[in-house]
């Protein structure tokens, strides 16, 4: 068997996605996700101009060899564009191998370690009553664990609050990337945020009790000492995790956070390789790995980093909002079902339009996700539907402080 074609498909059903379709001489096809929110065309060009020519005539079964070849032969390693491109190839090859074997990918990874994947949903509100309504709705939909985000008095627009005026798309396909030639400018005030967030979790616990696992995303906006302060102030409310509390490019920063709080920590959705996690895992500075298969080089390296994390009792919490396509989400669910140290899977339902383009075998019931038992990843691309949703330029927002300084969004 050999690869005879590899096509890069860019489509925008509610938001932009980049998909790689690999075809073999025996007619077997595989899909991979290369979506990089706000920089989609950079990955599409990288694949089309540099990667696809290298795939033709290669043996699709040599997944590890192909991964190492694409990573090492370019010399210029790592980075989100390179790793998203490699991820798409890796997923597509696993998809092909599963189809040839007649098995879902999770069976090739060692078989299921659980019956389904625990998920968490995204509840948010512009005020406490609206947040409570969102939590109740998610509980009614079956979610057992809830991420809590709210507006903050004094901040006009805040990440993660789907009902705000700047949020586009329906609630389940909340898309912070705004269509247009320039990114939206938002505001930020860390002191206001640190004052407000503990009062929100106090209200949620008083209303819903101690049983529901609650999560919160700091979105890289705090300094290490500010993150430590927030983690400590949230300890009475027993969070499942505090996510991305400070930029983790400086892995040493988490030593300071860890010294001051017992709130569990999750990080890694912007990471691209195991090297970004090396210190965090080895020194047990985090509790959950947030990497996404789409931005981490695919299934193969994500399994390796989770095997490494298992030595330190660190679990998975893979990134899973709708900027990971159904192909990328399927890749993660197969891996999550197989590994022993699975923790939780972030899950936002894609839009109806997206689900028309990506036909899926995944099921969501009673708060649990399963990739299905079709051979491969269980996703098929409706190319006619994909062609009906052309790419639209879109950028994620960015933040400025009151004095005009650009801040982490």
Summarize the biggest pleated sheet.
Answer: 10 strands, mixed
Residue runs with pLDDT of under 50 for 5 or more positions: 167-173
Give the amount of beta strand, in percent.
15-25%
The CATH class of the largest domain, by name, is Alpha Beta
The percentage helix is 25-40%
User: For the residues shown, what is the average pLDDT?
Assistant: 95
Outline type: globular
Fill in the CATH topology of the largest domain.
Answer: TIM Barrel
Structural class: alpha/beta
User: What is the end-to-end distance?
Assistant: 46 Å
- Rg result: 21 Å
The number of distinct structural domains comes to 2
Q: Any guess at the CATH architecture of the largest domain?
A: Alpha-Beta Barrel
Helix segment count?
A: 13
CATH fourth-tier homologous superfamily of the largest domain: Enolase-like C-terminal domain
| E-strand count | 20
What does this structure look like?
By secondary structure, the chain is α/β, with parallel strands linked by helices. The protein has two domains: 3-104, Enolase-like, N-terminal domain (Enolase-like, domain 1, 2-Layer Sandwich), CATH 3.30.390; 117-373, Enolase-like C-terminal domain (TIM Barrel). Helices cover 35% and strands 19% of the residues. It contains 13 helices and 20 strands. It has helices at 40-55, 63-72, 80-101, 105-108, 128-140, 190-208, 224-233, 253-260, 278-282, 299-310, 326-338, 352-357, 383-387, and strands at residues 3-11, 17-24, 29-33, 117-125, 145-150, 178-179, 185-187, 214-217, 241-243, 265-267, 288-289, 315-316, 345-346, 358-360, 363-365, 368-370, 379-381, 394-395, 398-400, 406-407. Strands 4, 5, 8, 9, 10, 11, 12, 13, 15 and 16 form a ten-stranded mixed sheet that branches. Helix 7 links the parallel strand 8 and strand 9. Residues 167-173 have low confidence and may be disordered.
């Amino acid at each position: 068997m050999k690869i005879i074609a590899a096509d890069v498909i860019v489509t925008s059903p509610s938001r932009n996605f980049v998909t790689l379709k690999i075809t073999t001489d025996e007619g077997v096809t595989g899909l991979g996700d290369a979506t990089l929110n706000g920089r989609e065309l950079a990955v599409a060009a990288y694949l089309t101009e540099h990667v696809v020519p290298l795939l033709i005539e290669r043996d699709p079964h040599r997944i590890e060899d192909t991964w190492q070849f694409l990573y090492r032969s370019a010399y210029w390693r790592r980075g989100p564009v390179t790793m998203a491109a490699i991820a798409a190839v890796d997923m597509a090859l696993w998809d092909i191998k599963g189809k040839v074997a007649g098995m879902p990918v999770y069976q090739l990874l060692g078989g299921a370690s659980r019956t389904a994947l625990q998920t968490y949903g995204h509840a948010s509100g512009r005020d406490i009553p609206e947040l409570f309504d969102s939590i109740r709705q998610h509980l009614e939909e079956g979610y057992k664990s809830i991420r809590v985000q709210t507006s903050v008095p004094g901040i006009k627009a805040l990440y993660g609050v789907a009902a705000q005026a700047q949020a586009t798309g329906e609630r389940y396909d909340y898309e912070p990337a705004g269509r247009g030639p320039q990114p939206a400018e938002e505001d930020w005030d860390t002191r206001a945020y640190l004052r407000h967030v503990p009062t929100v979790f106090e209200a949620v616990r008083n209303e819903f009790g101690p049983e529901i696992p609650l999560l919160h995303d700091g979105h890289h906006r705090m300094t290490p000492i500010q993150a430590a302060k927030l983690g400590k102030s949230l300890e009475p409310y027993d969070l499942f995790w505090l996510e991305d509390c400070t930029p983790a490019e400086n892995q040493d920063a988490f030593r300071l956070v860890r010294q001051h709080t017992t709130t569990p920590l999750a990080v890694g959705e912007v990471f691209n390789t195991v090297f970004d996690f090396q210190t965090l895992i080895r020194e047990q500075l985090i509790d959950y790995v947030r990497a996404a298969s789409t931005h981490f080089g695919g299934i193969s390296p994500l399994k390796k980093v989770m095997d490494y994390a298992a030595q330190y009792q660190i679990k998975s919490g893979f990134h899973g909002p709708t900027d990971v396509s159904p192909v990328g989400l399927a890749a993660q669910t197969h891996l999550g079902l197989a590994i022993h140290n699975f923790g939780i899977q972030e899950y936002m339902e894609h839009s109806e339009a997206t689900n028309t383009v990506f036909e899926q075998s995944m099921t969501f019931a009673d708060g649990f996700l399963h990739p299905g038992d079709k051979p491969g990843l269980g996703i098929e691309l409706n190319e006619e539907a994909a062609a009906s949703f052309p790419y639209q330029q879109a950028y994620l927002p960015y933040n400025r402080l009151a004095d005009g300084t650009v801040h982490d969004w």
